[in-house]
Write a structure and sequence with these properties.
- The protein has 145 residues and is of the alpha+beta class.
- Helix content is 34%, strand content 14%.
- Strands 1-2-3 form a 3-stranded antiparallel β-sheet, with no helix packed on it. The chain has a two-stranded antiparallel ribbon with strand order 4-5.
- A hairpin with a 4-residue loop joins strand 2 and strand 3.
- It is elongated and about 130 Å long.
Length: 145
Amino acid sequence: MRTLPILATACCLLAGVAFAQNTPMPPPATAPASRPLIAPMTHAMDIDFQGQYRKELEKNRQLRGENDSLRQQLAEYTRRGGSLVHAYCETETMSRNTAGASNDCAPTGYRCEPVSGLCRTSANDSAQCADGFLLEVDHCVPRPR
C-alpha cells in the first residue's frame, strides 16, 4: 500500500516532464529598442577646416605680438633705472640691485639696510656701522686708533 502513493507521485512527475518537453517555448524576450548613443545625422555638416586653421594662425600671430610687447615691457622695467629694479644686500656692506649695479657701503661707515637693500645713512646702534666704525649719536665715525 505504501508503494501506491510513491508510484502515483512518480507518474505525476514523469507526466510533467513529458508535458514540459512538448510545450512550445515562447520566443526569447528581446530587450526594448534603445536609442543609439549617437544620434544619426539627419543633415550633413560642412566644417570649414581651412577657415578654422586660418583663424588659429591669426590668433597665434596676435599672441606672438602680445608676447613680444610684454617682453619689451619687462626688459624696460628691469633695466638699470627701470621701475622693477630692486635693491638687496649682497653682503653686510654691499648693496646690489637686480639690474646689476652695486654700491659698497663700508667707505661711508655704514652697513647695508636689509629691508630696503640700500646703504644706511644713519644708525641707531653700533651694529649698523661697518667694521672699523662706531656709533656717535646717530651716525657712524671711524674708530680712533
